């Protein structure tokens, strides 16, 4: 069918590989093979389809790498390869597709860095690279994509800082950088994005203070800054972010019954002064309960560290050390390492001590930690199966924290829902246990 211009076989139950002979359909303008069960690699012969504008191969089981020959499709406007099992790196030659307005490579197993050449795609409106294993830094050249409306780089392994050039993306509606390993501070230039509605920087390793310029993003519906290491005050300019969701509201595009602001699990100052304090009470009322606690304690007198939510307390006895020591209690929303056969409860945190700038993990006397909980928080773990576990970095395994203290024992109070134990090492901790076995009756007939 040498004159064929449009072939749509999407949304079927097709299996097997994509025939290389499709590359002979040189008049083809649109090819839809998405939402099937196709496997095998993408034929390099598809690079011969010089008139192709739409190539939809998403939602299959395709394997192998992305053929560099696709970079020859200079008329291509949409390239959808998402939701497959593709591996290897993103070919730099995709940056030659000057007519491309949508590039979907998300939810594969792609590795390597993001090619700087993608910054040449001047007509691109949607760039979806989320849900891969991409690493390295984000190319500053992506800031040249001045027509970009949505940029999804989340759920990868990206490192380095957020490029300040992103402030040039004046048409951007959504910027998703969450669940990576990004570091450094937030560029103040992000406040120059007048159309931005979604900004998600959560679950990274970002530091420094929150720039006041973010308060210029008056169209924001969601701002995720949680699970980082931000410090200092929350800017008073945040009171300008009146359109942040407070729950379901179809008028401003809020479709979930949840807050549009998440500042949790940082190191921000508590409390905050007016007028931002009242604003936070409405937009993110629980933000202060999960902030880190910084305490300096004199060894001769001892002292107490208490979490912001009051559920965890660490007592430092007098004589545990000599001199002045600084303690950081840093809560986390989830355990930072695989649990194996253990079941998570609710309390995950780091306890770090510094003496003259050096990390200290052992003391002359054990510390004592007391953890409170509710039945709902530890379900389905029974109280007697609940323990505090310490992550051993050198062995990459969770150990019962009581094992570090010779002769140490748990003190449990099931009626008042708390447990207490001595601590002889500091580091990462998680309240874990073994779920109760549930036996279903065997019915025979």
Number of domains: 2
N-to-C terminal Cα separation, in Å? 60 Å
Residues in β-strands, percent: 25-35%
Within the largest sheet, what's the order of strands?
Answer: 1-3-5-7-8-9-11-13-15-17-19
Structural class: mainly beta
Can you put this structure into words, describing what you see?
By secondary structure, this protein is mostly beta strands. It has two domains: 6-290, Alpha-Beta Horseshoe (Leucine-rich repeat, LRR (right-handed beta-alpha superhelix)), CATH 3.80.10.10; 293-433, Chondroitinase Ac, Chain A, domain 3. The chain is 3% helix and 29% strand. It contains two helices and 32 strands. The strands form six sheets. The protein has an eleven-stranded parallel beta sheet with strand order 1-3-5-7-8-9-11-13-15-17-19, with no helix packed on it. The radius of gyration is 27 Å and the shape is elongated.
């Amino acid at each position: 069918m040498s004159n064929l211009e449009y072939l749509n076989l999407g949304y079927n139950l097709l299996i097997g590989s994509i025939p290389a002979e499709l590359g002979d359909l040189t008049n083809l303008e649109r090819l839809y093979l998405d939402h099937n069960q196709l496997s095998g690699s993408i034929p390099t012969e598809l690079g011969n389809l010089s008139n192709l504008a739409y190539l939809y191969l998403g939602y299959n089981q395709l394997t192998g790498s992305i053929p560099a020959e696709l970079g020859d499709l200079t008329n291509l406007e949409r390239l959808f390869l998402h939701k497959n099992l593709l591996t290897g790196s993103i070919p730099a030659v995709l940056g030659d597709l000057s007519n491309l307005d949508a590039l979907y490579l998300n939810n594969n197993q792609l590795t390597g860095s993001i090619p700087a050449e993608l910054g040449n795609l001047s007509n691109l409106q949607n760039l979806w690279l989320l849900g891969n294993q991409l690493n390295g830094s984000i190319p500053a050249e992506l800031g040249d994509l001045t027509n970009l409306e949505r940029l999804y780089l989340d759920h990868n392994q990206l490192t380095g800082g957020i490029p300040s050039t992103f402030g040039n993306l004046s048409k951007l509606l959504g910027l998703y950088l969450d669940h990576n390993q990004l570091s450094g501070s937030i560029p103040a230039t992000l406040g120059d994005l007048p159309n931005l509605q979604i900004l998600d920087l959560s679950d990274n390793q970002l530091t420094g203070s929150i720039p006041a310029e973010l308060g210029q993003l008056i169209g924001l519906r969601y701002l995720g800054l949680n699970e980082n290491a931000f410090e200092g005050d929350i800017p008073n300019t945040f009171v300008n972010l009146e359109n942040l969701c407070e729950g379901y509201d179809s008028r401003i595009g809020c479709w979930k019954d949840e807050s549009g602001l998440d500042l949790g699990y940082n190191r921000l100052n508590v409390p905050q002064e007016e007028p931002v304090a009242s604003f936070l009470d409405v937009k993110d009322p629980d933000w202060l309960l999960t902030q880190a606690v910084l305490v300096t304690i004199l060894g001769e007198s001892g002292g107490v560290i208490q979490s912001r939510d009051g559920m965890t307390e660490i007592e430092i006895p007098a004589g545990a050390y000599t001199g002045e020591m600084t303690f950081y209690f840093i809560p986390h929303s989830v355990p930072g390492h695989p649990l194996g056969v253990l079941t998570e409860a609710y309390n995950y945190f780091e306890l770090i001590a510094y003496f003259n700038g050096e990390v200290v993990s052992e003391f002359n006397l054990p510390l004592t930690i007391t953890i409170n909980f509710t039945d709902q928080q530890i379900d389905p773990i029974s109280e007697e199966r609940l323990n505090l576990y310490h992550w051993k970095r050198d062995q990459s395994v969770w150990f019962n924290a009581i094992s570090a203290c010779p002769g140490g024992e748990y003190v449990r109070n099931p009626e008042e829902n708390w447990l207490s134990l001595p601590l002889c090492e500091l580091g990462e901790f998680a309240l874990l246990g073994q779920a109760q076995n549930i036996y279903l009756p065997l019915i025979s007939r």
